[in-house]
Write a structure and sequence with these properties.
Elements: H1 14-27, H2 35-41, H3 46-58, E1 62-64, E2 70-72, H4 74-118
Antiparallel strand pairs: 1-2
Length: 119
């Protein structure tokens, strides 16, 4: 599984932010984690954290103990597995597209080279 979003990424998608929140909660273990731990661990402002916590709680991806701790649910763990597969497949597709672009560029170079030799 890939690390949480790096600083070289321009932005994270909604799904990427949710993944980061769930990873923080998962890595906290059975005890769970506090809101501030999620905020810093997922690199979110308080406003974004509040908005996204509502998403994940409403979707039952996280559980709030009614006091201060947030814990990942089984559904949240399933989300992470599916997201990981999605990310692997997306990276493979991106690599395939890049290879196709490079191949097309090589073909064009070969044609340019052939045209120069004929002159």
């Amino acid at each position: 599984m890939r690390k949480m979003s790096s600083s070289k990424e321009r932005y994270r998608s909604k799904l990427g932010i949710i993944r980061d929140i769930l990873l923080v909660a998962k890595n906290a273990g059975d005890r769970g984690c506090r809101k501030t731990h999620i905020m810093y661990g997922a690199s979110l402002s308080y406003a974004l954290l509040t908005r996204y916590l509502k998403y994940v709680l409403d979707a039952n991806l996280l559980y709030h103990d009614g006091e201060v701790y947030y814990k990942i649910t089984e559904k949240g763990k399933t989300f992470l597995k599916i997201y990981n597969n999605y990310e692997i497949e997306t990276e493979a597709i991106e690599e395939h597209v890049l290879n196709r672009s490079n191949g097309k560029r090589e073909l064009k170079k070969m044609l340019e080279h052939e045209a120069k030799e004929e002159v």
